[in-house]
Amino acid sequence: MQGSARGKLILCGEHAVVYGHPAIAMPIDRTTTVTLTPSDGPTRWQGPGDHRATEVLRRLTAESGFTARASSDIPIGRGLGSSAALSVAIVRAMGIEDPEAQIEAAMRGEQVFHGNPSGLDVQVAVREAMIRFTRNEGFTVLPPPTFTVVVIDTGMPGDTAALVAGVGSRRPQIDATLDRIGSLVDEVAASLGDVRKMGPLLTENHHLLSEIGVSTPLLDDMVSLALDAGALGAKLSGAGGGGVVVALVEDPAPVLRAADGRGYSAFAVIGRPAGIRPQVAPK
Ligand code: MEV
Asked: At what angle do helices 217-228 and 252-261 cross, to 10 degrees?
């Protein structure tokens, strides 16, 4: 039994989404594949990840009777959705096909990684589309991205559970900032086809994330590096504390070069140009 799920990138709205505000996220072409085989003895995990992967597997399958082999090219703990992809790949390998049932089961896995997940990461992994999501209203599928972003990796994992708990402990003092992030997400949603409008909104989202205490000097430095290299906007993406920066670009090359010059690993996620339709095969 085999199942796969893709990683994700949060465009805007992380952390605020935990408190009911909207967020926008999209899948990326990085995948986790899990193969489940019945076996004697305790359920075992063979693949990337730490003891929490075994815990997720046992919660979603059973304490004994399974071995899971996994492969993944999603960097772990970088806000790229490795934990949600792991849970969704497991539930798909178990043969659960209904999207709502996949989400319901995978959320039990996500709780191993942090106690109060908004569900955003699992939703993107299951829906396989760019979505706007709120905890109360659920998801809306947005048009496929027409823009290009460069993802710059700090090489360091962020501790999502601790970061989410830290933000929670700073409420209600930071509630106005969370509200501002929420309204900014709707401004981004309205400007998805207009990168010049969208860029500054993303950079503002980074400053607000900094205000709520989840950025680091390295993430701030990467945002400046991307903007200096011509990005239209840049922000941390995911829980922060490490992880990645996402930079909105017209041309990825200068930002990729600047990141490489500083020894940071980076890759581009290239949107489909507006108006391009899937090709119809000639008769
Ligand atoms: C983590 O990928 C995104 C956060 O908003 C947490 C969550 O939505 O559960 C930080």
From this structure: 130
